[in-house]
Write a structure and sequence with these properties.
Blueprint (H helix, E strand, L loop, with lengths): L5 E12 L2 E6 L15 H8 L4 E6 L9 E7 L2 H55 L8 E6 L1
Antiparallel strand pairs: 1-2, 1-4, 2-3, 4-5
């Protein structure tokens, strides 16, 4: 994968587990929140997480515990995943409520909202299952230094 088409972040390896590593990232996200194509995830993670974050990533370069590493994920995959996990369910819930309102007032809106959320959940699960084997959606270590 071309490094120019990846978002990267610096981290420290804390544990090794087979072909993967548990890394600690001081900043959340890729740090490109204000650039074109940035997803704004860093601001979101700062609201909910105050300490360092730990992630399991592919360790194809043989990094060891304590190494400083650069972790990469395909550019755009963070935004696509965030949209799939957050925007789609919210939009489907609101659309379901709007469509259900004329059919049954407030109870129809509640049923429509739940139906929209359930449909979005099922769609997100199906998409996530498809992406399990897609390396573009998996973070991996691209370089390390002791």
């Amino acid at each position: 994968m071309n490094t120019e088409q990846q978002s990267t972040v610096r981290a420290i390896v804390r544990e090794l587990d087979g072909d993967s590593a548990l890394v600690e990232v001081e900043q959340g996200g890729c740090g490109r929140c204000h650039e074109k194509g940035g997803c704004g995830g860093q601001q979101l993670t700062q609201m909910f997480c105050s300490g360092p974050r730990h992630y399991r990533v592919a360790n194809d370069v043989g990094a060891r515990v304590g190494d400083q590493v650069t972790v990469a994920v395909a550019a755009g995959s963070l935004r696509k995943s965030a949209n799939l996990a957050y925007i789609l369910p919210l939009t489907a819930t609101i659309a379901g409520a709007v469509l259900g309102m004329p059919l049954g007032g407030d109870p129809g809106a509640m049923i429509g909202a739940v139906a929209g959320l359930v449909m979005a959940f099922l769609y997100v699960r199906r998409q996530a299952a498809r992406r399990v084997d897609d390396p573009a959606f998996h973070p991996h270590i691209v370089s390390h230094s002791s």
